Records
---
Amino acid sequence: GGADIECDVMVLGGGPGGYSAAFRAADLGQKVVIVERYSTLGGVCLNVGCIPSKALLHNAAVIDEVSHLAANGIKFGKPEVDIDLLRGYKEKVIGKLTGGLAGMAKARKVQIVRGNGRFIDPHHIEVSVTTGNGREESGEKTIVKFRNAIIAAGSRVVKLPFIPDDPRVVDSTGALELKAVPEKMLIIGGGIIGLEMGTVYSTLGARLDVVEMLDGLMQGADRDLVKVWQKWNAHRFDNIMLNTKTVAVEPKEDGVYVTFEGEQAPKEPQRYDLVLYATGRAPNGKLLGAENAGVAVTDRGFIPVDKQQRTNVPHIYAIGDIVGQPMLAHKGVHEGHVAAENCADHKAFFDARVIPGVAYTDPEVAWVGMTEDEAKKQGIKVEKSVFPWAASGRAIANGRDEGFTKLIFDPATHQVIGGGIVGPHAGDMIGEICLAIEMGCDAEDIAKTIHPHPTMGESIGMAAEVFEGSCTDLP
Ligand code: FAD
């Protein structure tokens, strides 16, 4: 059949994976089209994920920070929150970034085709043009013919079957809309997204309950890191329900009544003003007509790929949330670069040793590579070194010495294979440990690197020094 547009590389989805792939492919001389249903680039991350959540968390962190100054003789009044202005600030942040992306696309002559894309065969996609801010289809269709394709269609919120349609029951997107601050809020799912949003609402005045099916909050991070976060944040919570199932959510006139099951579960349904469900995200693999292109999709909607990000159809690649865990923007960006380079006939592979995880709560919790808990579970022998921030001049000066920095070493080589940090700005610091792991650094390399004093980042060098000092069997 005919095509309205022809290109070398068609990128389906304009999120962090998709735009990174598109820009790299364009930089390598490819004619690139992005198919995106929304009016802005940036996907979940920029529009309803990483960025708006951090815009709100920053404001919350400042409020929390100044409240601690009272003990030092500096008192502020209770903050007056103009929620419309705060929401406006968040929108402005998004606008700056999505505007920047549009400019970058234009500068690279990347064409954006606005609409819902659906593969019709291995070299054509049909785009049902969308209008306005949402997904309304205008009825108009555009056919794009491509030599290579990169599927970057991301993931969506999973709505559990017992979640009703009610304005007081929201997902992360609804919570980011910040309509009002409830008195009493329930977070279903004690993962990063739920706890970040809980931090914002609690600082603005909400009392929190959290319910988690597993035996701990913030799964994936070592328990000793999470413990520090939990102690610092105990004041926000009325009830932390672990090993507990949520079985019913019932909107009534005076509130939303939620029923729980489990040993720690309250017997009676509990009343909330706002319920946030943050129990996970599902990949969009089944919504793209992938079968028409011959692309294999798993039952759960993931698209399997090899180390070059190729699907089972060699000229069609997939990247980002749609290819698997961890569903993180920085993973998708790297996969996007690999796919784009392969489209331009380079030979690129995704071979990152580690992908860091960060909870941008207060304090932040960051980890990368091998964790202590995972090593224990797998029966892998590791050694560790912990530097408590109670011994860090800068952390003490900042009034924030609750945290610590931990390095995990291979006992045979003393190479660093993992690390964790809990404390303010942990997420900004974890990058050094990522680099150390990628470069195969051992404890001595890190210990002999001069870190600036006094900084919290210094704690990484100190942890390595402590480990070096304790070793008698230097390799
Ligand atoms: P997405 O960002 O999901 O983008 C996919 C795009 O494809 C969307 O724009 C969608 O409209 C479009 N699309 C899908 N199907 C079609 C179709 N058929 N036709 C046309 N267009 C289509 N990650 C981090 O690393 N750090 C964080 O701090 C962080 N915070 C988060 C906070 C929240 C509240 C949430 C929900 C997520 C957060 N994440 C964070 C995760 C991060 O947002 C995702 O990992 C990332 O956005 C995935 O990028 P992607 O390119 O794979 O897909």
Note: The chain has 14 helices and 21 strands.
---
Amino acid sequence: ERVQVGIVGAGPAGLLLSHLLALAGIESIVVETKSRAHLEQRIRAGVLEHETATVLRETGLGARMDGEGLAHDGLFLQFAGAAHRIDLKALTGRNVMVYGQHEVVKDLIAARLEDGEVIRFDCADVAVRDIDTDHPAIHYSRDGAMHEITCDFIAGCDGFHGICRASIPPEALTLYERVYPFGWLGVLARIPPASQELIYAAHDDGFALLSMRSPQISRLYLQCPPDADAADWPDERIWEALDARLARSDGFRLTPGPILQKSVTAMRSFVCEPMRFGRLLLAGDAAHIVPPTGAKGMNLAVGDVRVMARALERYFARGDEEAIAAYGPACLRRIWRVQRFSWWMTQMLHRFEDDSPFDRRRQLAELDYVVNSRAAATTLAENYAGLPMDWGD
Ligand code: FAD
Ligand code: DHB
């Protein structure tokens, strides 16, 4: 089999890339190890930057998002028992959309399957070959048979643990990494959100986040040890910890309810440079990870594949190799600015075990400054609502 672009991974990056390429008349096939049902139920990120929502809308994917998604004009930072609103809309003119990543994935899968069998789910033994030639190939097995797809380019969109980055000779890559000494325990609960807008809370017990998926479903996160096991967190322990960290002196309290799902996520900052080796281009979590505190992971993946789709369009229209070479550098500038923001939010809001009392007071002073200075609040708001795209030209 032969295709212009072979895509490894059907997460937001791989699926949106395939969708954008199709709109430009470029053929692609997406190879994925998991089942369609698994991808459509995997609860991950929940906040779409203004520009991410706009791209989905402008490419025909906005109907369910605009119907079921929740547009948020602000968020709360909470510390010392009080919540302070950051008015994203007033400070930046933009808002964000709360709409689950798995819903975006559902919409993308439905749109792509209209073009036929372009997504191959349930593949095993996925490998990329000949990536430093002009005929790179994806190999996989499915239903007991081996398959090969020869491509002009391969897009490595297979996430942090995928095989694409690992197929590049290590000496060709520089990896930048910071691992945080905590994780997040995330829960999905059948209770109406206790707040209309997200609450990011810094508490002496650790960070907590109140988010949501719908008017009936809340999404909550708790800072926990990095190696925590969700099995050690019975529902009562989770509600007790959340209630302690989110309670306020104005009487705000959480009402416990049924927990539908819980899982622990490790926290790291990671960047791989460059984002290309020969005819293999990396995008999304395959190339970089941010700690989730700034809600940037999925948005960065979307930014990457927008730049990649345009570079590939130029390549297929007029053989523009320069556009391919410019892809990574254009993305990396934005990626590093988003890395900085995600690190900044993380260090400001979490409890670090070896922090001194001085560090703790400095952290509270930083929060106090951010919520009381229009300049500082604007800095947070413009990053949170989303930095402008950087196309590298
Ligand atoms: P992914 O969504 O990881 O997609 C990669 C795809 O490749 C997957 O479908 C995977 O099954 C597939 N794949 C892997 N290996 C292979 C292979 N060998 N062959 C073929 N396919 C393969 N971000 C936030 O902002 N907030 C959050 O709360 C948040 N929570 C998260 C929780 C978890 C457990 C994880 C892992 C990430 C979370 N993120 C969060 C980050 C955000 O979800 C990611 O940044 C986003 O999914 C990146 O999209 P992607 O398409 O690059 O990668
Ligand atoms: C969600 C996740 C985040 O990392 C974040 O910063 C805000 C919201 C969420 O899953 O709803």
Note: Residues 321-349 form the longest helix (29 residues).
